[in-house]
Amino acid sequence: MCRRRGITRIVTVRVLVRLLAVPLVLFAAFVAVIGGLAVHAWTTRAVDTTGRVAFDTPLRIPPVETGTVDADGTRVFDLTMQRGTSDLGHGPGTRTWGVNGDHLGPTLRAERGEKVRVNVTNALGETSSMHWHGMRLPAAMDGGPHQPIEPDTTWSPYWTVDQPAATLWYHPHLHGSTAAHVYRGVAGMFLVDEPGAPPLPHDYGVDDVPVIVQDKRFDGDQFAEDDAMFSDVGLLGDEILVNGTPRPFLEVGTEAVRLRVLNASNARVYDFSFDTGMPFLLVGSDGGLLEQPRPIRSIQLSPGERAEIVVRPEPGSRHVLRSTPPDLRSDFWQDRFSGGDDRIDVLELRVAADLAPSPAIPEQLTTLPELGDPTGTREVELTSSSTIDGREMDMSRIDQVVVAGSTELWEVRNASGTIHNFHIHDTQFEIVDVTGMHPDHPSLAGRKDTVFLPPGATARLLVPFGRHPDPQMPYMYHCHLLKHEDNGMMGQFVVVGAEHIDEVTGTVGTDHHAHSGG
Ligand SMILES: [Cu+2]
Predict the structure, then answer these.
(1) Residue 128 Cα to ligand 1 middle (Å)
(2) What are the residue ranges of CATH 2.60.40.420 in the chain?
């Protein structure tokens, strides 16, 4: 009996082993493949182009566009969004989008106090929009998701430029399509000038140079547009274009050069410095000039942010503007797949042996007006890579109501566990502090419209709101990692007169749901 039971047991075990063998082997193979993929992705993901970029192409300078002044004194610009092909280092046939050209757009310039109108014609063959990033203007002129430009139509926003000299930019902002439209090349700078500016280098394209930095990935001779595996942030490229120039160098012929650096990338955070350790002066950020120039050796910019820097290189020297691993402050896994370990060469400065003299940089550049005490505090939580305060963007929902001309303290907390940044339209705010960052951190300096937010951090922002009340037309606040923005990481606020603060409804264009305005 005992022996037979033993045999039965052995047979049962054998049957079990046979039954389980196939799934076990399959499972082991599955684990091995996934593990192998992860290890492969991990080891191949970090981008390092340092010392390997040829820098054999003169930096393209976007043409400056000052428009025409019509009879009533309005400066009028004509922009056409169009398709084309460009040579971006992979042959002449790369399909690109641009403004008044095949790729990227002209640099618009206007003076503070001027009335401007921009006729934006959409020849892309699909709906888009054009947003004036950093500009203070009425919501109906903002070019956000509520101002789509249908194919073969022209949208003509107008406003009075009413803010200090600054390096602003323009790009599409159609909900759900911003990442693709910007990535394909619809973007350009909008420089605001101001009479009485301090003697900074200002000869456009000579000693005052736009530096629009974008990372790209290529599949053959075309842009690759798919997100990288394991990456939450969206597309990260392994090649850099500056003003649409692959492998760019800039000939420097003056003692001082001002670089207007714009991070126009979809997702990549850069920490810019020079390979030689050359120090430079930070003279401006998103909203314009700093009060005093700040001597630094590196500046971190997340997507949408700008920095104006002035360099004074030695005659005959060469320097490579480079991005070293940015301080993303996420975990080691996310850092790797969010570009946090990447080292990227961007632009070579070739400095002539004989340099034309440049004026000294004054110690005081401007005086920023006091923003005053906030009238209230508003808490905003970044809750995932597609939600703010737990909600995806809804174009028919008003999320916040603010009083025109008021200043509020916004406490923006990144509770999502991944990196983000935060951009508010129609304002240039003061960053009071960001968790874990020294108040003198150069990335927080000056007036800002975009702030980087590592996981777990809270940014306290003193936000002066605009003076163009419109209870029906919202402005946006959102993450400027474009995939996140497209996925719904965006909210809407309206600016209203104080007397109307209780009348505004929670929806656009309908009358239900009274909204207290938080
Ligand atoms: Cu984000």
Answers:
(1) 21
(2) 57-193, 208-356, 377-500
